[in-house]
Structure formats: C-alpha cells, structure tokens
C-alpha cells in the first residue's frame, strides 16, 4: 500500500533515512532548512527541527539522537526529546553526507572541503579529520569499512580500525560524475551511481575485481532520442540484499545484484526521485519525489 506523508517539506528534499532503532521513524532533511521526523505508521509529523541554512543530510545516531548537517558547515547532534543541539564538528565548506557507524560508535560526515570528520559518540568531543581526494559527494559506512565518493570520480576506501589514510583509492568504473554510493549489507562491496544513467557494482577485495560490472538504467526514449537521467539514490534491503535505485526520470527499480537483473519497477512519479530509504525490518520504503535541479530553476 502506497501513501503520502502529511506535512511534507516545503522545499526540495535532500535526504531520507529510517531509524535503525525503530521500524517506523523516518528522518527527512530539506532545502527549507528544516529536518522532520515522521511516525510512518501513524502518518504523523512528530518532530520539527529548524536550522539557519539548508540541510543536505541527516541520520539517526541512537533512539534519542539525530545528526544533521548542510550548507551551514557545522555537524550537529540533536537530542530528540529535549530538542537541544550540540556542535560536534565544524567544516570549512558545506557538509554533504552523514552516516553513523554502530560498531565503532563513529559519526561520519563528508564535506565539500575535501575532508571527512569522524566524531566518537562515546565522548562527542573527540573528532578526527581525514583528507580525501576531492569534494565529498556521497559516503557510506558499515562495520570496519568506510567508502567515500568524491567529485573527481575517485572512491577512497578506509578501514576504520586505522583510518588516517585510505587503504585503497580507486577510480570509479563509471565515466561521469558520481551521485550516490552504498555498501553491500555485508560490507564486501558497494553500488555506485552516476549522472549518466548508469550503476556500477564493485568489490572491496581487489582479488574480486574481476566480478565487478556496470549497467544502464533510468533512461527513456523521447521522440526517438534516448534521454539519460542521473541515478540519485540507492538503498539496500536489509533482509534480501537486493537494492533499489531512484532516478531523475521519476522511476524506481529494484535489482538482484547476484543474478544481475531487475526484479521490480515502480510507476513513474511526477518529479525526480531524490532520495530512498528502507526501514530496518525491510517492510517499508520511503520515496522522496522532489525536483533535484538537474535542469536549473523552474517555476
């Protein structure tokens, strides 16, 4: 059953993230400088957090805390119940991507200043900055692995047990600008997408590189001309290991990476699919149908 959440953001949606600690709590960030937490079971907006500038990403850090960042360059922890915030890192440029690593208790944020901050949530005062090759466009972390996709199409792969320098730095198999990167649930590889309607499947272990592959998607034919759309979002199903992609063509597809085939396609949405997230139990998928400014400002 599909339904629209009430009280949606008033501007473009920049991220969606279900809580790992609850199957029904969804965090949405927006260019309207607000973050919202929804109870998806009740279809109710339950918390609203206002910032001074647009937010580009957010994630749950615990049952009672979220982290937010964006054009304001500062990484925040919000206490959901007390609605009080704390600055845990300050970057020199906007923060583009935020993830929480449960194993290492690290809040990880990637910025356009070409650094990644790692804040130890056991103290909230101990923050390490590591350099990456270019502006961070997307990152993900699971277990001991952190992958960072940058503006120059390079991917830095870190082992969080020794993360001062990347253990690998490799060029993306895709020829155009990266939009999103997501690790496999077992952290043995990742899926990466680009602005040219293409997705790559790659592996962390360099001895498995012969297994990597890429495929075309989120393309359509208009007046006998192929139109190629950016692939903005990727999310994995926590149980089955399949993954979904969302594109600026307004469509969503679900893929079986092992058998290399599409297993489901959604009807087209009225605008770009800007973000996707699947609940911790795998029973819900949140979809942000929101213009992503691929064609500049529109009325």
UniProtKB/TrEMBL annotation:
The keyword Repeat applies. Keywords: Repeat, WD repeat. Signal peptide: none annotated. InterPro entries: WD40/YVTN_repeat-like_dom_sf (IPR015943), WD40_repeat_dom_sf (IPR036322), WD40_rpt (IPR001680). Pfam families: WD40. The keyword Hydrolase does not apply. WD repeats lie at residues 231-265. SMART domains: WD40 (SM00320). PANTHER family: MRNA EXPORT FACTOR AND BUB3 (PTHR10971). This is Budding uninhibited by benzimidazoles 3. It comes from Rozella allomycis (strain CSF55). The lineage of its organism: Eukaryota, Fungi, Fungi incertae sedis, Cryptomycota, Cryptomycota incertae sedis.
């Amino acid at each position: 059953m599909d339904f629209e959440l009430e009280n949606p953001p008033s501007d473009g949606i920049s991220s969606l993230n279900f809580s790992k600690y609850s199957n029904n709590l969804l965090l949405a960030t927006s260019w309207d400088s607000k973050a919202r937490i929804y109870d998806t079971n009740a279809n109710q907006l339950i918390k609203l957090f206002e910032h001074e500038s647009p937010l580009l990403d957010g994630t749950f850090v615990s049952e009672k805390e979220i982290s937010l960042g964006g054009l304001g360059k500062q990484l925040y922890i919000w206490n959901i119940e007390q609605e009080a915030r704390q600055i845990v890192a300050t970057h020199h440029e906007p923060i583009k991507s935020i993830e929480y690593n449960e194993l290492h208790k690290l809040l990880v944020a990637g910025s356009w200043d070409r650094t990644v901050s790692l804040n130890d949530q056991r103290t909230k005062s101990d923050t390490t900055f590591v350099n990456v090759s270019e502006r961070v466009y997307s990152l993900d972390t699971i277990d001991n692995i952190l992958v960072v996709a940058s503006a120059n199409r390079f991917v830095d792969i870190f082992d969080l047990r020794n993360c001062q320098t990347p253990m690998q730095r490799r060029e993306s198999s895709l020829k155009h600008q990266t939009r999103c990167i997501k690790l496999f649930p077992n952290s043995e590889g990742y899926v990466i997408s680009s602005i040219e309607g293409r997705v790559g499947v790659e592996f962390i272990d360099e001895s498995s590189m012969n297994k990597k592959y890429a495929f075309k998607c989120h393309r359509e034919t208009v007046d006998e001309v192929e139109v190629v759309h950016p692939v903005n979002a990727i999310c994995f199903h926590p149980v089955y290991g399949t993954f979904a992609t969302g594109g600026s063509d307004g469509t969503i597809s679900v893929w079986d990476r092992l058998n290399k085939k599409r297993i489901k396609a959604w009807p087209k949405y009225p605008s770009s699919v800007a973000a996707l997230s699947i609940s911790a139990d795998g029973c819900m998928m949140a979809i942000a149908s929101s213009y992503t400014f691929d064609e500049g400002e529109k009325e």
